[in-house]
Amino acid sequence: MAAVNPYLQVENLTFSVGDKTLFRDINFGIAEGQHVGLIAQNGTGKTSLLNLIAGHEEPEQGSITFRRDLRVAYLEQTPTFPEGLTVMEACLWRCREEPRRIQEYLTKLKITDHDQPISQLSGGQLKRVALANVLCMEPDMLILDEPTNHLDLQMIEWLENYLSRSSITLLMVTHDRYFLDRVCNLILELDNETLYTYRGNYAYYLEKRQERVDVTNAEIARANNLYRTELDWMRRMPQARGHKARYREEAFYDLERKANQRVEEKAVSLQVNSTYIGSKIFEAEYVSKTFPADPDNPASTEKVILKDFYYNFSRYEKMGIVGANGTGKSTFIKMLLGLVKPDSGRFVIGETVRFGYFSQDGMQFDQEMKVIDAVRRVAEYVDLGGGRHLTAMQFLTHFLFTPLQQQNYIYKLSGGERRRLYLCTVLMQNPNFLILDEPTNDLDIVTLNILEDYLKNFKGCVIVVSHDRYFMDKVVDHLLVFRGDGDIKDFPGNYTQFREWEKESAVSTPSPSKKLPNAPAANSRSSQTATLSTTGQAAETARPRRLTFKERKELEALESTIASLEAEKTALETALCSGKLSVEALTEKSKRLPLLQDELDAAEMRWLELSEIGS
Q1: Residues contacting residue 414 through CB under 8 Å, at least 6 positions apart
Q2: CA angle 69, 73, 79 (to 5 degrees)
Q3: Do domains 6-205 and 282-491 have the same CATH topology?
């Protein structure tokens, strides 16, 4: 594919790692101003291709040609800088931007200490500094390898808007499908050592790719039918063949290669039998957690994670947790798992709950162990229920490890393949409550689709911490939004609905009395009852008398009113959690919910007050 007005032209490129060919004789070009997304399964050569283009690797054959004097910047998946630099010096490294613009980028990426040595930064912070550095270089062409990793949702949306409006030429690898859809106008797909081109965004790619797969499968099916006929002819033909027979024989071998191509089937739903889970899941009873300021750092302040947080988790609930980096999302999960102790309050866990935890930090594997052996150490079989089961090998195959890859040593796996292997070891343990902390990092899009399908069919509870908006929209039915300083928003809906609600709310900011409560009304009932009981006792002390006739009639009417309000509230919450509402309906019902709760609170308060008087 030759690009018009090309910035980059790649011709007949071939590259292998060991005895594995990643791609063979691929050709493509990138023109000025194009925004190109590169998609492939983990381990099939995405990062290798970017490294070749950036000049960090040498191809076996083929050529890579840039326009003369083109300024190119490359954000690596795991960036490195010279030793001894501060954050600001790292940003100025190979950069011609003025400091004011650099500070703007660092502020957007939430890097505040510009004099901090980069040796003290976490991997995520270093990736953000590297992103600021490449943006400051003002390149003609920008190459990005997983730019959204280690960014929170606010940063991702800023970068998405920045790049989608920019005229800079882009080539990037990312698993963020909303990001791909909104930023890229051309998709390249590496599959089966071949490169395919789709001239559109991610949604267009999905449509056209399926058409390609269907056509390929039909061609392979036809080749298989013809192959059986030709194979019979080959077996019956005498050894001495004429010219026409030899031509047919050569055609037979071409047909055989085509018939033996990999047939790509649609993903089969994998419904693994989870362990029975009872109605009691967990209850967060007025939990508080604060990390004190660092006494050795005068600039540091205390960090409040939770303040008297109450929540009663429901059976089969699928919750998403979102929020800026550093607001306490991972800490909340670790407190639930008992890995971090709260300052006050407690988590009460149901007796039947069996956690499966996928952490950000990953899992330390024995690098000299084979993939299949690492999984068999966890379980030989996976229970599908109803007497059905999968072997460890079959389960790995479903998660895209071929029989050949299963015999590979772990040290040969790519970073994404190791994350996929870790995911398999968690899911194989038949948990009934999955807790996934940033599961989408380093996973390819094909694996994400399989994981989404798995979670939608999962017969248990799920909590997901993720910055992947597409993934959250597919999996969760409501959110906890960590806003910092212990402020947690409970929102009935998915991430896209939440963002739409936020935009609507920003247009007409509600009064404090109209704000959605920080926890669902049903979950705040225990604290409410305690408050009402105290109020009722005070009323009894203040007015030790019998009810009047009018008050008795009011008490009877209140019982009917409360029942009616509770029925409306149940119906409203069911609708809000359905994920089927339009933005307008979601906004209307979200505004009604707090007003309804206020009415219910007032009615219950008055009912309790009157009932205490009459007791």
Answers
A1: 42, 43, 47
A2: 150
A3: yes
**Secondary structure of residue 9 in the 3-state scheme:** strand
Which position has the token pair 């919450």?
573
Q: Round to whole Å and give the CA distance between 441 and 439.
A: 6
Spatial distance between the Cα atoms of 526 and 259, rounded to a whole number of angstroms: 66
Please name which of 246, 195, 204 lies closest in space to residue 39, comparing C-alpha atoms: 195
Where along the chain do its domains lie? Answer: 6-205, 210-259, 282-491, 500-614
| CATH fold group of domain 6-205 | Rossmann fold (3.40.50)
Helix (H, G, I), strand (E, B) or coil at 33: coil
Residues in the chain: 615
The tokens for 209 are 């790719």
In 3D, which of 399, 434, 460 has the Cα closest to residue 273?
460
Which residue type sits at 158? W
Q: So what's the pLDDT on residue 326?
A: 84
Average pLDDT of span 569-588? 74
Strands 194-198 and 61-66: what pairing? unpaired
What is the pTM assigned to this prediction? 0.71
Could you read off the pLDDT of 132-180 as tens digits, one per residue? Answer: 999 998 899 999 999 998 898 989 999 999 999 999 999 999 999 999 9
pLDDT digits (tens, 9 = 90+) for 335-357: 999 999 999 999 999 999 999 99
Alpha-carbon distance of 361 to 284, in angstroms, equals: 25
Closest alpha carbon to 597 in 569, 572, 575, 576? 569
For the beta carbon of residue 250, count every other beta carbon within 10 angstroms: 10
* CATH classification code of 282-491: 3.40.50.300
Which range of 219-228, 473-482, 573-582 scores highest in mean pLDDT? It is 473-482
- Which residues make beta-bridge pairs with 482? 323, 488
Could you tell me where the DSSP H helices lie in 147-194? 153-165, 177-183
Residue 496, CA distances (Å) to 101, 122, 204, 469 in order: 31, 30, 21, 7
CB neighbours of 113 closer than 8 A, spacing ≥ 6? Answer: 87, 299
Bridge pairing between strands 318-323 and 461-465: parallel
Q: Looking at residue 170, what DSSP letter applies?
A: E
| Distance of alpha carbon 299 from alpha carbon 462, whole angstroms | 38
- Report the distance separating Cα 591 and Cα 517, nearest Å: 11
- Other Cβ atoms less than 10 A from the Cβ of 265: the count is 8
What stretches of 313-457 adopt beta strand conformation (E)?
A: 318-323, 344-349, 355-358, 381-385, 388-391, 433-437
Looking at the chain, the number of H-run helices and the number of E-run strands are 19, 20
Chain position carrying tokens 């997304």: 37
Can you tell me the distance from the alpha carbon of 431 to that of 383, in angstroms, rounded to the nearest whole number? 11
Which among 273, 270, 281, 269 has a CA at the least distance from the CA of 430? 273
User: If residue 489 lies in a helix (H) or strand (E), which one and from where to where?
Assistant: strand 488-491
